[in-house]
């Protein structure tokens, strides 16, 4: 796994938390929730190739 993806995930986490706090304090809780959900979806799309590679490796490992 690349180290850069960890920094990207951290940056998205910081950005989403700051935006969420700003939106919550301005009374827009629904948009804060959608911002958090969008951040989660972006991170999952980044991790999807790594998860697929993990399952492929496990399949090859336990194949008879």
From TrEMBL:
Entry keyword annotation includes ATP-binding: no
Transmembrane segments: 6-23, 32-52
Alphabetic keyword roster: Membrane, Transmembrane, Transmembrane helix
Pfam families linked: SpoIIIAC
InterPro entries for the chain: Spore_III_AC, Spore_III_AC/AD
NCBIfam families: spore_III_AC
Protein name in UniProt: Stage III sporulation protein AC
Organism expressing this protein natively: Blautia liquoris
Origin organism lineage: Bacteria, Bacillati, Bacillota, Clostridia, Lachnospirales
